Amino acid sequence: MSNLFAHRLALLADDAHRGLLTLGYRGIERETLRVKPTGQLALGPHPRALGSALTHPQITTDYSESLLEFITPAEHDVSIALDHLDRIHRFTAAHLQDELLWSQSMPCILPAEADIPIAWYGNSDIGMIKHVYRRGLAVRYGKAMQCIAGLHYNYSLAEDLWRVLRHDVQSPLDDKDFQSESYIALIRNFHRYSWLLMYLFGASPALATQFLQGRPHSLERLSDDTLYLPYATSLRMSDLGYQNKAQAGLMPPYNDLDSYMRSLSRAVRQPYPDYEAIGTRRNGEWIQLNTNLLQIENEYYATIRPKRVINSGERPVEALCARGVQYIEVRCLDIDPFEPLGISLDTARFLDAFLLFCALDDSPLTDERASAEASGNFARTVKEGRRPGLTLERGGQSIGLQDWGLELLERIQASADLLDAQHDDTRHGDALALQKNKLRDPDTTPSARVLAGLREHGNSFIAFGLQQSLQHARFFAAHPLDAEEEAAFANTARMSLAEQERMERQRGGDFDAFVAAYNQRTPSRLCG
């Protein structure tokens, strides 16, 4: 244990400060495809009973009209956030009629690329911006990749806790900047150790053969309809999933917030020849917001992001520049196909302990060599994390994945114990113990359990995914919302539709000017 980590643990364990650990926030965003009982993508519009995908606070869509996204409110206790997520699932499942929620991160049976429906948000200026952005993703990366689903974990510590840590080190930074740079330090540690999350929670070692049709790959054939890698943990996070060669080298090492924002700001203004060749219009219609390396900041595919709640029409980098980092968003988690909500409470409790460890432990500045080492460890783990004897690199030296993982869990135990002391129980320690078992026995990892499940279904990814989806549907049907909860969700849906209609009535009428103004909203002082 580093001296800084031990000191901060003791500081926060003090009676004067221990309550601050209960005041941070947790939120969850879960993506899931709507599918037919045959395992094929549902191609119909976003169900009206769910409300407006543009304005509903909890039920929206991501890339495709078929890709639902559920968003919980931020809560101090993640168990309450999961209760919200459960109710969102139960309401949605009850209004899908003959459709199911897909249980996997990797897609179901997809139609031809041209037939995958891009999400539609209506005719308001903001709604059209969101739609055209997704058109841009289609022409840049293809539609199939955008149908991959994930789970995002939003995490913050109380602002008063950061003030305590700032006062302790007598930092010359003001509260906003100290908090922002501390979150960037958390992100550096996350990059060092995120391979551990992929080993423990990766759940996509296989995919449908059709998903890679016409694309070169090095996967092995498990059956006629299924490809896999025998020791993979998360093909979703490999170079077959959320990877983009155009963005290679875009982001420098995470050593300060300003360099992060400067890189993003340059990327959304930097012309990119391949996208210039496509243009912004086809047959008079917008097909991408601009021809730059990134259309908007969110196009940058990152495993973790510094975030700030944005105001209407505000760009993410504007919010970070003006008000600093408010929370971080972990984006590398696969959907857990064995959990109806896509994540278990034990996983969430472990994430809290892991992220607290990343926040409190010493986080040295990094460089290109260290960044490459961390990226290499991550890439090796997602493709062969369960390979017996697999080694990673730590400071230029080889170390066994299991040895390093168990060593990390011993260090994370201290943050779990500190969290458990707030409630005089062992909930975080118990969640950590489950992860130790996975390191000792790779067959207990979600990725190994998925392959075992495939074997029970003729080695078919689609058959296994459909079985899990049906099982989850039966679970939600057996636990319907009560009348009051159902009425509350129905009312929110009606209000969201009315709000979208109001926005469409107030549309200015000159979308070209609206796009031009939106493209210029990146703070110029950050563009270098």
UniProtKB/TrEMBL annotation:
Enzyme Commission number(s) from the entry: 6.3.2.2
EC primary class: ligase
Kindly give the Gene3D superfamilies that the UniProt entry links to this protein.
3.30.590.20
Question: In what residue span(s) does the Glutamate--cysteine ligase domain sit?
Answer: 10-379
Q: Name one GO molecular function term.
A: ATP binding
Sorted alphabetically, the keyword list is: ATP-binding, Glutathione biosynthesis, Ligase, Nucleotide-binding
**InterPro entries found in the cross-reference section:** Gln_synth/guanido_kin_cat_dom (IPR014746), Glu_cys_ligase (IPR007370), Glut_cys_ligase (IPR006334)
Cellular component GO terms, alphabetical? cytosol
- Matches recorded under Pfam families: Glu_cys_ligase
> Part of which pathway?
Sulfur metabolism; glutathione biosynthesis; glutathione from L-cysteine and L-glutamate: step 1/2
Per the record, what are the reactions this protein catalyses?
L-cysteine + L-glutamate + ATP = gamma-L-glutamyl-L-cysteine + ADP + phosphate + H(+)
Its BP terms in the Gene Ontology are:
glutathione biosynthetic process
What family is reported?
Belongs to the glutamate--cysteine ligase type 1 family. Type 1 subfamily.
Report the HAMAP family cross-referenced here.
Answer: Glu_cys_ligase (MF_00578)
Q: What is this protein called?
A: Glutamate--cysteine ligase
